[in-house]
Amino acid sequence: MKFHHKVSSEFKPTFRSSKIAGMFDIDVEQKIVNEWDVDFPIEDVNPDWQVGVIVGPSGAGKTTLAKKIFGEDAYFQGFEWKGPAVVDDFPESLSASEVPAALSAVGFASPPQWLKSFNVLSNGQKFRAELARLLTEDRDLVVFDEFTSVVDRTVAQIGSTALGKYIRKTDKKFVAVGCHYDILDWIDPDWVYYVDTNTFEDYTSGRLERRRRPEIKISVQRVHHSAWRIFQGHHYLDKTINKSAHCYVATIDEKPVAFTAALKFPHPTVKNMWKEHRTVVLPDYQGMGLGTMMSALIAEHYHSQGNRYTSVTSHPAFMFSRIRDPRWVMTRAPGRAPPAGKNSKVTGQSADRVTAAFEYIGEKHEPNQ
């Protein structure tokens, strides 16, 4: 697709602006015009492409360009949120399980936050909620303007990773339009158009090597249970912790990002049995799979020492992940938690949750031939 693109802005004088224009001898009769010949060969890209990026400096004409190429119907710049809770504004056709799945898939995996109204969420949470709602709507193509413009760069990069992974599990196409170049390696695009240089990069052709997500170095160490206070407000169920738990924290660039605690099974007749007690990932780092990574890493730690390691979860993202992960076997299918004993501290509310139980069995190794 080749065409001549022109973006212009016209001065509309007011008393103050005219005075300032005179002070600096600005010719207000002239329009500010930016124009160039566009070479945007989208028709040559593999038709199965799913993620594209239009990037360039502010005022370069990205929005008008995107609308001209992909049409007004595909263009998106924000929803109106009216419901008392974020989940209330999702399409009514979605089931109660589909909404959490969509939110978790874009890295917004904090159920307590889902029950808040949209206006009280952080910018990062709003960004992910918008993405989740947008991607559950009946749209084959989405053009998202001002992509990651209102969030800090950590949220932008991690959110881009989560989005790229999620889009590729659907049959949708997504075009991110924005001024930040730092997301390109994280979102893993099929193509990129640079507005400032009129350059189009097609990674589906095989002539260009695909971008690689930056390597993230994660360190894990055992910590005192007091570290839980950093994470407790983000746990989907419980803010308490057993002080006898073994606690572990994952850090990136020396910043704590994820937490897992393990408890020795308390029954005296059961030996060498440990269970997962808490796993939490801080909101800004959700969507990269850190929770499942951290959970499996700690499980492997105990499994390698000859212990059994189990986990009971009601979090849909953990359930779906473990069902697909050969290192875990399901020992109880999703359903209501079994009745608690008379001395149990489990409340009626938590006993009524839908949970699933798993045991970690580790990697399966083929016998030597």
CATH class of the largest domain: Alpha Beta
What's the CATH superfamily of the largest domain, by name?
A: P-loop containing nucleotide triphosphate hydrolases
- What CATH calls the topology of the largest domain is Rossmann fold
Q: Quick check: average pLDDT?
A: 86
Q: What fraction of the residues are assigned to beta strands by DSSP? A: 25-35%
N→C terminal distance? 56 Å
Biggest β-sheet: strands ordered side by side in the sheet: 9-10-11-12-13-15-14
> What share of the residues lie within helices?
10-25%
Unreliable spans are: 343-350
Identify the overall geometry: elongated
Describe the overall structure.
By secondary structure, the chain is of the alpha/beta class. The chain has two domains: 40-202, P-loop containing nucleotide triphosphate hydrolases (Rossmann fold, 3-Layer(aba) Sandwich); 218-360, Aminopeptidase, CATH 3.40.630.30. It is 24% helix and 26% strand. The protein is built from ten helices and 15 strands. The protein has a seven-stranded mixed β-sheet, covered by helices on one side. Helix 3 (98-105) packs across helix 5 (123-136) and helix 5 (123-136) runs parallel beside helix 6. The N and C termini lie far apart (56 Å).
